[in-house]
Amino acid sequence: MTTPAHLADLKDHVIICGYGSLGRTLAMNLAAAQIPFVVIDNQRQRLRLAQQSGHLFYRGDDLMDENELLAVGVDRARTLVAVLADDASNVFITLIARRLNPNLQILAYGELPATESKLRFAGADHVVLPSSISAQRIVQLITRPNVLDFLEEKDERSHLIELLSQLDLQIEEFTLPLESSLVGLAIAEVEAKGRGRFIIVAVRHQNGTLVTHPPLTLSLAPGDTVIALGRAAEIKTFFRQYAQRQPIRYRGLRN
User: Fold this and answer.
1) CATH of 169-243, one of 3.40.640.10, 3.30.1490.10, 3.30.70.1450, 3.30.450.40
2) What pLDDT, on the 0 to 100 scale, is given for residue 5?
3) pLDDT tens across 29-39, in order?
4) Exposed (0-12), middle (13-18) or buried (19+): which is 36, by Cβ within 10 Å?
5) Would you say which domain of life the source belongs to (predicted)?
6) Helices (H) and strands (E) in the chain — how many of each?
7) How far is C-alpha 97 from the chain's CA centre?
8) Quick check: 15 and 37 in contact, CB under 8 A?
9) Model-level pTM greater than 0.70?
10) Is 236 helix (H, G, I), strand (E, B) or coil?
11) Where in the chain is the domain with CATH 3.40.50.720?
12) At the topology level of CATH, where does 5-162 sit?
């Protein structure tokens, strides 16, 4: 298969297979670390988000086809990260990628603990499970594997704030007032307005229900608390801009 012109010069790069919430977080972190990468996905909506964030991307109609991986330079890449929504796809991509490039570092995401052995058998060097700090853990595997080995000896949750601060990233949360112009918008639309400055990693509804890794199609409602990952100042500026809160009036005060 002929490699697209805009990908022909890629070498020693990272391939992100899947641009869901985990893939988006990983892309943002790699961009901050100035590590070359390309995103491959088969959903137009996700690729539009990648484009709006300024990331190099490629639409693969069938991610199970080895020609799609060759198109993004799997034979020249340093690392492939399989973070698709279902474990079976990640296992299959791992198997194909290992066959195409025996020297490739492969990091794969598994939703179920039982998938870990299958991913390793397929050729994954490292497997990331939901119990870990997934995106940050993958970045550490790519950039600082020795540091990750050290962190795994402790409770990774206790290091979350430290890891985020090293990447100049923070988790911020904002509750949407009734009059916010973000009410009624899907997460994909909100992130598009943010132009890649943050991603929404969770939403807590007014009834207390917490939705982690929310789908891009999830619409925001009044009273929803949006939990976003990015640079704190940019997140705060964005949500204040769209909050449109009414001025607080205190009883008993006169002009």
Assistant:
1) 3.30.70.1450
2) 66
3) 899 888 999 99
4) middle
5) Bacteria
6) 10, 10
7) 21
8) yes
9) no
10) helix
11) 5-162
12) Rossmann fold (3.40.50)
